[in-house]
User: Fold this.
Amino acid sequence: MVKKSITIVGKRSAKNNRRANLKRRVRRHLQKKGLGKNNEGELVLQGDGKDSIRSLHQTQRNERLEKSSAFIENKSGNLLRYFATGQEIDPSNITPVVQRVTAGTEYSDLFKLASFTWSVPVSNGFGRRLRYIIWDQSNEKLMGLLAIGDPVFNLSARDKLIGWDVDDRRSRLVNIMDAYVLGAVPPYNALLGGKLIACLLRSRELYDDFRKTYGNTEGIISGKNKKARLLAVTTSSSMGRSSVYNRLKLDGIQYLRSVGYTGGWGHFHVPDKIFSDLRNYLREQNHEYANAYRYGQGPNWRLRATRKAFTELGFKQDLLRHGIKREVFISFLASNAIDILQTGTGKPNLESLLSTHEIAELAIKRWMLPRAARRPEFQNWTIKDLVGLFGCKSHIINSNVDRFRKSAK
Assistant:
């Protein structure tokens, strides 16, 4: 009996030690990333500007690159031919075309590889998803990426603008998507290509593609056919206020509208290694959130799991309030989109919805040609500069660049 009691005490002691060690790891990580606490006990980022935000994202980005290192090393040699050097771009001849990406193809690999050029790791999206590659037809090179997926259920800035209550949102959110990947790759980003690609959220092709793909499908949770129409697309800036998405207006039409900021809550500052330990801790508690995410549970499983683990460890939920308030934008594809979203009735007015070609002509003239004239240094961009963004080792960079040059001859 005494031996059994000693065993139980020993297990409890080991469990308490693991709990204490995990708490210390969480605190050390947050301090290392420059997150302190204000007088109210909330997390605050030490330092101002986008460089501080990039630094906070760096751990997450490094983890993604490390996990994907084999993919990058194996695929980059063959896919580099799709990326442009500065010398291969003639701004006056840029001709964007949109291509849908299908899983399991070379273009799906290209989409994944190109996403690693972002300084902030991109999401994998949730639920309904449409992914696109934007090509420059003039040189057959990659301009950028666009992907839309199911939006988060709770987004106060969006819901306040539309005038939704909970029931309205539950029945009509099916008509809204969120752009979880959106931007230009180098060197097109230096030519403000990100503005052009953002404007493509409000294109005839995207509206029609959504209608054909999801217009008659049942909701994952409700099981009802809601005759979805793509009336609006939301997106947010990862760096606070956005210089790319603001003032996006072409020929008198506003393509993205700023509607406010998020509350600064999230989990990106909790790296995968710590999150894995948090899940193990929940598993010891036999908590359901320790289980892996399953389709149909909603996009916020990781947030809920992290919050629950913090609570069980004795932390305040404020540890999930990183304080970086992202600017929220919305693009209405129909001129009467708000009326339909408010009432649930009406036919979308799409008279002002332009094609990719028409949007591109306006955007190139408005942003890209003037930028090329003012900032010609985009011409200095090389493939070696690009591969350096993938975090590969130097000998791998040189090997892949050599392979690219040989295949280009």
